[in-house]
Structures are given as C-alpha cells and as structure tokens.
Amino acid sequence: MDKFMQAAIEQAKKGKSEGGIPIGSVIVKDGKICGAGHNQRVQKDDPMAHAEIDCLRNAGRIGSYKDTTLYSTLMPCYLCAGAVVQFGIKKVIVGESKTFDGAEEFMKSHGVEVIDLNDSTCINLMEEFIENNPVLWNEDIGE
User: Fold this and answer.
1) Which residues pair with 94 in a beta bridge?
2) What mean pLDDT do residues 34-38 have?
3) What are the φ/ψ torsions at residue 67 (nearest 5 degrees)?
C-alpha cells in the first residue's frame, strides 16, 4: 500500500480511538507529508472539523497548493471538495467511495484528478463504523 494512504488510514484509526468518525487525510508536497488530520466533529463538537479540513489546518500556510496531492480514506464531501477546488489542489487519492460517494464529479468538473483505490481496509473501517453508529454517521453526512 502507498505510504501516504497508510498515513491517512493511521489518522482514521486515531479518530476512531478517540471516539470519533474514522476518516483520515494527509496532504503531500514534494514527496513529503506537510499536513495530516482526521475527522474531529465529535471530539471538538465542531461540525466543520472534517478530516480534510483538519488536515489543511494542520498543514498551515504552505504557499501554492497546485503541486500537492490530498489523500483521504473516504471520498470527500462537498464541503471538503470545495476546499480542494478553492485551494487549487489538482490531485486527490481516495481510499474508497463505496460507503459514501461524496463529491467526486464536482471535483472532476473543476479539473481535479480523482483516483479511487477501492481499498478494503478503508471500506471495512467505514462499514463497521456505520453499522455500529448509524445516527452519528447520518449526522456527519447531513441526513
């Protein structure tokens, strides 16, 4: 497995261990992770604390994002896809979109290359979480 997706999975597992939603993300620039984060909506009582947003916050100001790649264990939602488009991130590598199809077409329509790995580890993390926490999951996706 790609070391950057593995780092995103470790972020997702960290979120799960904290009682949160197991979604993780890292942003890579020049072959190095410059930011990492995980969904912290539960932990911080913050509806905006999605994994990708947490990752971008932790990366801080890195100049241009055009030469970065964002990794996420789950297909980004419209909130996070909006951040991708806003900052000019041109490539997003996703662990899976089986459990949530997110905003793939929105990103693609704005020139973002989206690669879905259909990774079984990512799928299993989310399927287990959704089965055990349907109310929290529905809150996270705005249902």
Assistant:
1) 72, 116
2) 97
3) -105, 25
